Amino acid sequence: MRRPGYAGKLLRVDLTRGRLTVEPTTKYADRFVGGRGINAGILFNELGPTVRPLDPENMVLFGVGPLVGTLSPFGSRISIDTKNAFTGGVGSANCGGHFGAEMKHAGFDTLVFTGRAEEPVYLWLNEGEAELRDAHRVWGKTTWDTERAIREEQRDDEVRVIGIGPAGENLVKSACVISDRSKAAGGSGVGAILGSKNLKAIAARGTQSIAIAEPERFIKAIDAARAKIEQFPKAAKYRVDGYYGVESYYGSPVWETGFRPVRNGQDEYWDPKKIKLVSGDAMKKYRTKILACSSCPVGCMPWMLVPDGPYAIEGEGWWNNSSNSFCTRVDCSNPEAAIKAHLRTNQLGLDGDNVSVVIAWAFECYEKGLLTKEDTDGLELTWGNHDAVLALINKIAYREGIGELLADGVKAAAERLGKGSEDFALHIKGQDTVDGVRISKGWGFGVVTSPAAGRHLRGATHSFTPEEFLSYDGVPYSVYMQEQFKAIVDMTGTCLYNNGLLSWETKTAPDSAKYIAELASSLTGMELSTEPFMRIGRQVNNLEKAFNVLHGGFGRKDDHPPKRFWEEPVKSGPYKGEHIDHETWERMLDEYYTFQGWDPETGLQKESMLVELGLPEVIEKLGPRGLLR
Amino acid sequence: MMLLDPTRCKGCKLCEAACSLHHTGHEAFNLAVISTHVHRDNDSGKITISLDSTCDWCEGEETMLCVKYCAYGARSVKQ
User: Fold this and answer.
1) How many CB pairs under 8 A join A and B?
2) Chain B within 8 Å of A303 (Cβ-Cβ)?
3) What contacts 24+ positions apart, CB below 8 Å, involve A499-504?
4) Burial class (CB in 10 A: 0-12, 13-18, 19+), A608
5) A224 — contact with chain B (CB < 8 Å)?
6) Which residue of A71, A207, A290 is in closest CB contact with B30?
7) How distant is the Cα of A120 from the closest Cα of chain B, in angstroms?
8) Contact call for B71 and A298, based on CB within 8 A
């Protein structure tokens, strides 16, 4: 029987044979709820460690959680999990938009792709039915043109499309999956994985029913969550002014506190005159309206318009990270060029977070004379040259000229170039990392230890005062709890950003878990009170950890930050001199591993912890290989 | 009468979910039975809202659910 809160179907797509099979979602939801949870369970249990990321045998899973496509606030997210194209460890990305809700209304909770189609295809999900369709017509097209063409083919402007652009087709490591033309599921090279499978896109349309287990209780839970959001003092202002998502994390400052590394992380402080040119206020000039993902009562995504000139473009998107990727990181303060860069990466299907890292590395190589105009197709990669940034974005997506060197990520590029460029190649576990980690220690420790390799949507914790930013106190426990909480966010399909508005008073993000737990329990009929829910979150994190050990060979050494952040202090601004203290970092790792039940010496999981946590499959797979303690 | 203001609407479609809640007797979310639709043009970002003749003004509810759950003031009722 179909469980309330779910569409009911898990679809397996064997692209090699063109075979589609359906299983009940319930088979997996009992244990791992949905979204990233179900994805992680299947990925760990079914994928062999010798499979390489771009092999046909690799799997890529798309999953939405129970709260997606309902009246529950901010249930919009879709999780995409696979073997990471950068690291060979776990790959995990997610995004908002409207595709997730439409996929569920079309009748599907989870999609599991294996194999490689002989010719380009897209998957069409419609009213409980699924079929693979010819994608020759859209192969080579941008994500925007692909959406247009599929909607035309289906003669329906309400069709939602998620898929790849030319970058994914060309197996560029920083290729992402784009939903609704603007929402990027970035990191892990998920776009390249789809490209390797000749899978251009998934399109969905439907009006299938999603039942509610306890309607009265569910509505009460929705009203409680909505009321809590409205109590946030800046909720109304953010909703109208659009600062939310652009200028602030619930009031936490972002410009001077290392969230935006400067010139490839040489510094973490930027000239205030330049900040003024691309700040939230400056960008208002180009914002014609603010849009929302499905079911979001806040809405943070601006519609940007550069009406004329060399950077003329129009589309949805400008985000906190954009001013890192296309401004501070490359020292560019031309707002129109930055907007163009952001929207161009969406068109090409590139993750701005990833690709800007290798671009900034190339700029620094040029600064140091390690790359010259002869190597760069005549481009002058000087800090502030926004035209060169735009040119490199295109070259990387199509692997043209110097783009070929940069298309496999910063670690591979530095290994090929050598000459000491490895020292400022900013990657963690092999994946390009966008974040500065020297000032905010909680943020930095979460980014560096993330199983998804240098990403900030897992253990990274927010801080709100200068003292909190710099303090190491309590960081390991906070990151440990954040990881469990964020698994709940991803399993239910909710937006992490808005979860912060359910816990703004205590500033302890897991406090919002009680709201999410009540919403999910009353919708599905599964009793998911906070504590057992956090335990499932811990299980999911441990599956990903085990995947990293088994597939990626990662251990304690891989939970260290890039060399630059160990050795070079912040050069200017209020946090001048700040760096990561090596000894303290090691002590934090000891403490963090102890909370996790992992062996401090090696970072490997302890068998006793896995028994208590209920993950026999990890013991079965890692034990005989000597990968447990 | 219902006043719809698409310039305030952000396209979240919470109104559609609320509408389906009413039309299914609070049992499900089923967009096959809704009376209001929100459409976003992805070329221009322009939003349109429509209301059809199946709207029964949320008969039996304490308040009109699409108005209650709209966070953006895009819907209101004029007596």
Assistant:
1) 89
2) yes
3) A499/A74, A500/A249, A500/A250, A500/A462, A501/A228, A501/A229, A501/A232, A501/A235, A501/A250, A501/A298, A502/A225, A502/A228, A502/A229, A504/A232, A504/A250, A504/A251
4) exposed
5) no
6) A207
7) 25
8) yes
Q: CATH says A441-625 is which class? A: mainly alpha
Please, what is the average pLDDT of chain A? 94
- CATH number, span B2-77: 3.30.70
Q: How is residue A232 annotated by DSSP?
A: S
Domain boundaries along the sequence of chain A: 9-205, 235-432, 441-625
Q: What is the ipTM of this complex?
A: 0.98
What's the pLDDT tens digit per position in A403-414? Answer: 999 999 999 999
**Domain regions of chain B by residue span:** 2-77
Quick one: pLDDT at residue A233? Answer: 80
- Fold type of domain A235-432: 1.10.569
Residues A151-202 pLDDT 10s: 999 999 999 999 999 999 999 999 999 999 999 999 999 999 999 999 999 9
Residues contacting residue A60 through CB under 8 Å, at least 6 positions apart: A80, A81, A82, A113, A190, A193, A194, A197, A199
CB distance A75 to A101 below 8 Å: yes
B12–A212 CB contact, under 8 Å: no
Span A9-205: which CATH code?
Answer: 3.60.9.10
Q: Using a CB-CB distance cutoff of 8 angstroms, which residues of chain A are in contact with residue B12?
A: 292-297, 299
Are A47 and A83 in contact, with CB atoms under 8 Å apart? yes
Closest Cβ–Cβ partner in A210, A299, A314 for B29: A210
Tell me the chain A residues in contact with residue B21 when contact means C-beta distances shorter than 8 Å.
71, 215, 219
- B60 at A interface, C-beta within 8 A: no
Q: Which residue of B has its CA nearest to A523?
A: B28
Percent of chain A with pLDDT over 70: 96
A213, closest residue in chain B (CA to CA): B27
Of residues A215, A239, A295, nearest to B27 (C-beta): A215
Residue A65: what residue type?
G
List alpha helices for A177-263, DSSP H. Answer: 190-196, 215-231, 235-241
CB contact under 8 A, B14 and A210: no
H helices of chain B, in order, are 14-23, 65-69
- Distance between CA atoms of A167 and A321, rounded to whole angstroms? 20
What are the residues facing A478 on neighbouring strands?
none
